Amino acid sequence: MTEFSLIELGKRLGQLVLSLFVLLVVTFVIGRVMPTDPVGAIVGELADPAALEAMRARLGLDLPLYQQFWIYLMGLLHGDLGNAILTGNPVMQDLRAAFPATLELATLAVILSTLIGVPLGMTAAFFRDTWIDRLARILSLVGHSIPVFWFGIVGLVIFYASLSWVGGPGRVDIYLEGLVEPRTGLLLIDSLWAGDWEVFRSAVHHIILPAAILAYSAMAYITRMTRSFTLEQLNQDYVVAARAKGASNWRILAGHILPNIAVQLVTILAISYGSLLEGAVVTEIVFSWPGIGQYMTNALMIGDMNAILATTLIIGAIFMMLNFLSDLAYLVLDPRTREVAS
Q1: Do 59 and 164 lie in a common domain?
Q2: What is the average pLDDT score of the chain?
Q3: Domain range holding 9?
Q4: pLDDT in tens, 302-340
Q5: Which chain regions cross the lipid bilayer (predicted)?
């Protein structure tokens, strides 16, 4: 790795650490100034005032805000995010159990959206103003305009309740829950690892609809941006030269245009992935998906501030990490960015 690359990497890491710290401060302050009283959520709003004050002192909520933040920061650095009111477990333990479900759902969704959105956007741009282009634009418009939860409800009514093509709420049929050891937390992988094909088929049956709905939402954005990138490249001299040489449409798209828009696509896909992890909250509620989104929603309902802070930090940190990795990909894939930065 060159000296410049190490310096640039150090700068990006410094920006990432600073951004994470600012996120932590803002999230903590908002959590403390919210009208919800975590003490009341623990002992009950009608509890004796002395009991409320005793619990407040036990949790350190009677200390100045800066001291509370310092205690929370030290606990965070040691992997201690406090205990959740909802489950009574350490928040970190709950997150380790819930996050793989969200990760599995969002990962499958971003794979589906990429496999469909990138080719569709490139094809729509190449055959501009044809029926393919109009279809792609309509699909993108609908995907941007209609809320995900509406698609989820309609999808359950049609494909689950009426046609029985997919599984219902949850990750797997109830009678199959707990049969597979959670080695990775990703049920599709764990069931394959265990060789339990019944659990695997049930998991696929349950994940396909929420993943497809999330994928459609992301695909609308990916298709629109890919079409825009491709239209810009179609006006370049190298495309005209490739056509003059008799290159096929497939060769022009896959062999010439795709490598030139790869750097831009990296950022778009990173943003989409982060948005899916964040946007899975609504989908998880509709499908009773036991992921971090549903965990955060349940925490909000009872004012569980430890769980709310932790999930907010996790989602924000993931989004920042994806942006950081996309910036690194820029430096690796496009030498021009290194020249500009220097």
Answers
A1: no
A2: 82
A3: 3-77
A4: 777 788 888 888 888 888 888 777 777 776 666 555 554
A5: 12-30, 105-127, 139-161, 203-222, 261-287, 307-333
For residue 73, is pLDDT > 80? Answer: yes
Q: What is the pLDDT of residues 241-268, one digit of tens each?
A: 877 777 777 888 888 888 888 888 888 8
Mean pLDDT for the stretch of residues 33-55: 69
Q: Is the pTM of this model over 0.90?
A: no
Overall domain count for the chain: 2
81-122 per-position pLDDT tens digit: 888 877 778 888 888 888 899 889 989 999 999 999 999 998
Total number of residues shown for the chain: 342
Average pLDDT over residues 122-130: 88
Average pLDDT over residues 129-139: 90
The answer on 276 and 143 residing in a single domain is yes
Contacts 24+ apart (CB under 8 A), 125-134: 125/226, 125/227, 125/228, 125/229, 125/230, 125/231, 125/234, 126/230, 126/234, 126/249, 126/252, 126/253, 128/231, 133/227
Residues 138 and 262 in one domain: yes
d(CA 253, CA 247): 10
SS (H, E, C) the chain: CCHHHHHHHHHHHHHHHHHHHHHHHHHHHHHHHCCCCHHHHHHCCCCCHHHHHHHHHHHCCCCCHHHHHHHHHHHHHCCCCCECCCCCCEHHHHHHHHHHHHHHHHHHHHHHHHHHHHHHHHHHHHCCCCHHHHHHHHHHHHHHHCCHHHHHHHHHHHHHHHCCCCCCCCCCCHHHCCCCCCCCCCHHHHHHHHCCHHHHHHHHHHHHHHHHHHHHHHHHHHHHHHHHHHHHHHCCHHHHHHHHCCCCHHHHHHHHHHHHHHHHHHHHHHHHHHHHHHHHHHHHHHCCCCCHHHHHHHHHHHCCHHHHHHHHHHHHHHHHHHHHHHHHHHHHHCHHHHHHHC
Query: Is residue 247 a contact partner of residue 129, using CB atoms and an 8 Å limit?
Result: no
